[in-house]
Records
---
Amino acid sequence: MNILLLEALIPEAREWLEARHSVTLQPGLADDPSALRKAIYNTDAVLVSPRVVVNREFLDFAPRLSAVARMIDTTDNIDLELCRERRIRVIQPTTANVRANAEYLLAGLLLLCRRGLGAPLLGGKRGEMRMGRELHGSVVGLLGLAPAAHALGMMLAPMGVKLIGYDPAVHHSSPIWSRLNIKPVSMFELMENADLMSVQVMYASRYRGFVNDKLLAHCKRGQGWVSVGRTSLYDTTALAAALQDGRIEAAVIDTSDPAFVGEGSPLKGLETLMVTQRLASFTRESRLRSHWYVADRMHETIAAPQGAGIEVAQSAPMDLEQPFKEPVVWGAGQTAAT
């Protein structure tokens, strides 16, 4: 079986695949459409990069293809419906970075409580002397019940934090709230009662601009915000106003969108906003989980007998009605049992 890699796997995972299949690493093909069409004609599985669009034209040149993989948990460049029609499995490591995101959120909450830590961490000789606060006894509002919120909730509860939450896609009567020991509240109650806000909404286009003037008008004054959600959630003008007038005392936001604080953005230059460039999910452990998951699932798909019942795609949102369970990290010579 032939596997084409347009992005590199860690050496151990690649060697494991090479012991079982014919594997070719050619990242340059991502920028050469003509050569890529020739290469995928005899390919059974492909690991694509964000620059490659998997559409009808792409798939018409890949009659043998049975699996398309992405290294990060988004499929914006893949036509999922067409892959489903052609029984091509879409592989993405949707849970590999959950704990990494949760730990980033926890670190952000602690940093917001002790903002004087920022100066020495950023290279200053002495931290600014300012009164901190303790996370213990505070009310943390969880905006969104994405899996990172499940892991974060389990970290915060033993620290004496009161957890309240709201998710536009999860009804307040759902049993998931009680299983996670989070009190469900309305959107405005969340804003009015939380000392600190953690944002990890599973994004959909209908949530564009969800954090707007109407929502932020209900802020408990002096809130701290930490976020790994899509920046499309934010009305940047409304967020800038809240940061400037003190409704939000400070915010820590992880994003890959340079325009969020770029030229012309009302957020540019705000001292109360700290933006990191995709640090939340960037850990050794999440990378290890991602690479082994992709390698194992590509092997599983193309090695299975035809009609063996492998699901066509893993593109649907995760089931928020079930508590998140951390994935197993497996090593060379092992495969995932789930």
---
Amino acid sequence: MNGFTSVFKREIKAYFSTPLAYVFLVVFLAACGQLTFMDDFFKMRQASMQVFFSNMPMLFIFLVPAIAMRLWSEERRSNSVELLFSLPITTTQAVLGKFFAAWSVLVLALALTFPMVLTVAYLGDPDCGPIISGYVGSLLLAGAYLAIGSFFSILTRSQVIAFVLGVVFCWLFLYLGSPQFMSLISSFMPMGFVEAMESLSFQTRFESIQRGVLEFRDLLFFLLLIAGWLWANIILLEERRAA
């Protein structure tokens, strides 16, 4: 646990000792406001944050890999990863420490959108259920994107390549359940495979949570996916340490 805490504190300090975290927070909040209030927020004529949360999957698909790309790529580029693993910490502690530090920045970003909740409450009498579930879903979605992005950050020394690969794979998971993708693969794949692909769609799971019903299967899906990609992080790092 001491190893995890050390890595966590080191990463948090690294984020906020450079402009990275501040730029990310400003861009995220500005994009949230722009996409929400320039969309159909006022046309809906109801106190709801549906428009706000519906923008999260596409907004995160670019911003979260931007946070994840530096997690390991920078360590490998500067060769400081050898110094990191010379400390009395395990690979698991290092991976989890970096992941939760980056996830904390995303939690802070979502927390800073709280004025939107106050705005909706001022304009009407919103249902708290979809708002709470929307934030839970957004947090889990961000965690899933982050775990994927972290994996590709280990894979390459280039932050740009890590960013591009993270965006591409997050996009694939997001649109697995889209009508266009389903129509394409259903023309040559068995229905069982098509349904399996649809069940892996981030969009399908997120929309289910966003409706205000926190089903155990949806929460478990994101938690297992995060755990699976972090496990892949650990395996890849172990192979690189042994090489």
---
Amino acid sequence: MSVDPAPAISVVIVLYNTADLIAPCLRSVLDSRGVSLDVFVVDNASSDGGAVLVRERFPSVRLVENSLNRGFGAANNQVLDRCAGRYIVLLNPDTEVTPGAFRQMADFMDASPRVGLAGPTVRNPDGTRQDSVSLRYPGQKRSSGEVSGLPGTIACVLGACQIVRAALMRELGGFDEDFFLYGEDQDLCLRIRRKGFEIGHIDPAVILHHGGKSERGAPPIEVWRKKAQAEYLFYRKQYRPETVRRIARANRFREMRKILLTRLTLPFVRDRARALERMERYRVGYDIAVRQLGGG
């Protein structure tokens, strides 16, 4: 009787203007041992030659080239039906997989049938640990029980690297494509728990994550705005309208208080430019909360 000695994993990497990082990422993936892989790269209309690099230097990788940036979730969803593995690893291009990590991740999922999705330990390139596990969802402390009584104790794990059961991912329809970038990982984890599965953490498996590379060319305030807007999209999808209003009112008050405090202390701070940058972020948060409440 023949026995498959290694679990099968499909790796999906969405590429957007990170040509300088995709080569070490793919080398670390393809050097993985003890597990059979098929690897997909979906390029979201990069302008830095990343797709050409993948096509020429990594011919075993299945490359999908989009003519426009479809967003992170939609790009992942494009190849769900082509993934042969019983597990799918959703991997950012600014990561490197340490030896044995994929095998440890698959072994964990094999031994944990109640877990639908899990994440490894995430470290910075210097070896320090990144915070990759959250026990609460955004806005949960002001919720009205919408996310209570769910399986397990972990709310979500960092989207830089996640392993998910392929059949479950397809049953859920993949990522919610209303999320363009940011928030889709939290939304996915919550939907998986609502299906009766837990979210897991695989401590022995380690990936290195450079972080903050997906929009490094964008102004910081615009990145902040996108993150805040994605958070409110999460609220609207997962919480009752009265909960969303409660969160927005609390956020409006918090941001106004920060703005006033910054104005009062501005004459006394050493780094005026940094203080003004913070105040601009507070104003963005305030404006988004006001719009959510119908004030503009």
---
Amino acid sequence: MSRYRLIAIDLDDTLLDNQLKISPRVKGLVQELRERGVVVTLATGRMFRSSRPIALELGLELPLITYQGALVKNCFSGEVLLHRTLEVEYAREIIGLAREKGLHINLYLNDELYVERLSPAGEAYARLAGVPVCLVPDLTGLLASENAVDENPVEAKLPYANGRTGPTKVLLIGDEQYLDNLQAVLKPHYGARVHITKSKPNFLEFTHPLANKGAALAELAKYYGVSREETMAIGDSFNDLEMLEYAGLGVAMGNARQEIKARAGYVTAANDEDGVAEALQRFCF
């Protein structure tokens, strides 16, 4: 019997190989774990609608950690367990700054992807995520005022939701070094008011201050009655650090950067070498 009862796995560059496929070996191991009563879920920066087809391919019909942990939603029933949105004021500031710098901006609202222009970077992102893009003239115009009536009052009353007036996430796409420098400036500026992370070298992401994969995994563990020591997390990037550190066992992929590997409990093979399968086989069977 596996000592790990809840396993969270990142998608891009972790579960998915470089062709965005899941290996047959991983599928078989996940199915066997599910038959043994182990909860296996996805923990990704992707949108819920982008993650759901992958979850269903694995036969998962349970809550998924999406948007870096800002939204935890059941991919079968649609039940929302957690939704933490970014304050409108900060979202508008970030969008304004990105416009000045000429960066591509993705705005995520109600599980839709909005952009002001169809740049090559934006089109590449949409292909990667497999989602349609909504082109609008002004992203800030989509953000309702603080006094707006919520279109989904039931969801707005969830314990960890702060309403639907703010976006679930804002993502900027640009040069890696430029985004690193921008992150170094914005992190101390926003402090604990905004969570800022990178999921890929050229993606800089902004969410609610408590929206990270580690916090979401902790809530999911509580939901299933699983102790921290009984959780396992597998990831490769900076946006995975919180969940790798929260989990009883944090596993970094072989293709992860050294900074990520240094903070993991175990380093498995790369995503193109079936690293997730290796980790599951080693620690769960």
